[in-house]
Structures are given as C-alpha cells and as structure tokens.
Amino acid sequence: MSDPLVLYEQQGAVAVITYNRSETRNAWNAQMTREVMAAVERANGADAVGAIVITATGSIFCSGADFKAPPEPKDPETGIRPGAATIGMAHDTSWLHLLARSKPSVVAVNGRAIGLGVTHTLAADIRIGAESSSYSFAFLERGTMPEFGCTALLPRFVGYGRAVDICLTAQTLTAFEARDVGLITRIAADEDLLDEAVAIAERLASFPALAMGLTRQMLQANATENDLNTMLKTERDAFVSFIKASRSANKASTTIKPPE
Predict the structure, then answer these.
(1) What does the alpha-carbon distance between residue 174 and residue 187 come to, in Å, rounded to a whole number?
(2) pLDDT tens digits for 130-142?
(3) Would you say 56 and 62 are in contact if contact means Cβ atoms under 8 Å apart?
(4) Could you tell me which CATH class the domain 6-206 is placed in?
C-alpha cells in the first residue's frame, strides 16, 4: 500500500496538513490537489480545530505542478482533463475560494518553493519560512506563466513594481529576501519552523471564531478597495453581523428551559 499523498494531524486546536509526496518533490498532480483541498475541508468541518498549518515532508516544500504525471481521463461533461490547475483554479471552487472561506491558515515553507509551489501559498493568511527556504518564480524561464492568483495577490504583498520585476526576470528569492519584500512575514530556524507555525496557529485559534472570520473577510474585501463608502460599509456590515450573533448567543445562554 502506497503512502498517503497528504498527512493530516490534529495538535490541540490546530490541524497540521503535510504534503507527503517527496519522491516527486511534493509536486501537485490532480490527485494531490484533491487530497490537499479535502484535508482543508476536513479541518473546516472539525469543531475542535480553530486554525490550519500547511507544511511538507522532505527538503523541498513544493516543486510546482507535476508535468510528468500520467494524464487523467477527460471530464465527460466539460471535455477538460483534470489537473492541478483545472482543479485549483476552477470557477467558484478554486484553491483561493477554499482558503478564503476556511479557518485561518499558516503556511510553513520548509524548503524550496518553485512555481505553483510559491503561488498557492499566497492565498494563505500567514506565510512563515525556514531559514533555508527559497521562492522561485521561474515561470517565464520555463516557458510558462504564473497562476493560482499570483498576478493579483503578489502585487498586494510586495507592490506592483516589485511583483513585475520578480515575475518578468524569473527571480528566486532567499527567505530573507522574501521577508524583506513582504512575500513572507516571518523566518524561523529550520528545526523550529513547524513548532513556530503551530504556535502562531494556536494563537489564531484562541480568538473568537466569528470575530476572526469577519476580520479576515474585511481584510480580503478592503485590501484593494478604493471607494471609502464601500470600504466603510463592509466594516459596518461586519459589525452588525457580529453584534447580532453576540446578542443571539447571549440570549441563548440566558434562556431557562422549563422543567420536563
């Protein structure tokens, strides 16, 4: 029996999802993509889980899409052959949609992240890298292009001009360069990476889930919003939702059930 492509472990209130396909440098094929997304959904459905950590086995975090994977049969309805890109970038059900509606996520990059191996981390809330980690945007060098929302998300994190430079010159960044430009926000010693990522996730999980979720939604909605009224309405609506939910919870907790 072959080893699972993705490992799932719960550490307290944190679900740790680990890529376990080191023989292919943790490259994503269609099945790997499905299993990673299923693991995130599993964490979302677990009441005891408050946050998610994503990491990998081996010295390479993720080498990108698996172009050597045997082709899967075409979808009979769409005629499209499933792959990491078609699954992970699907309309309304993409990797970006999944992480946006999920519990807060921390990606712990424990080695080289190449191509899709970098771009899929951009949808997470927090990215922490090992000191030895690196981040390769070698798309054009390989005759392909960035994907998984990179062309929208990377400029948000590092600025438009720097994103253009990184992508058009196919740069590879060290962990310290990645932190300096805002691609990742923290660096840990290699041996401490997972422990630090779990500690961050534990802190996220300790906060009220509704306030956490609404805060994430506001940041996602307003990060590129220029209209002040729209920006403020998003915040007002979030506060209304929060207050209504809090009142309902308080009412439920003070309701005295009649004796049976």
Answers:
(1) 11
(2) 999 999 999 999 9
(3) yes
(4) alpha beta
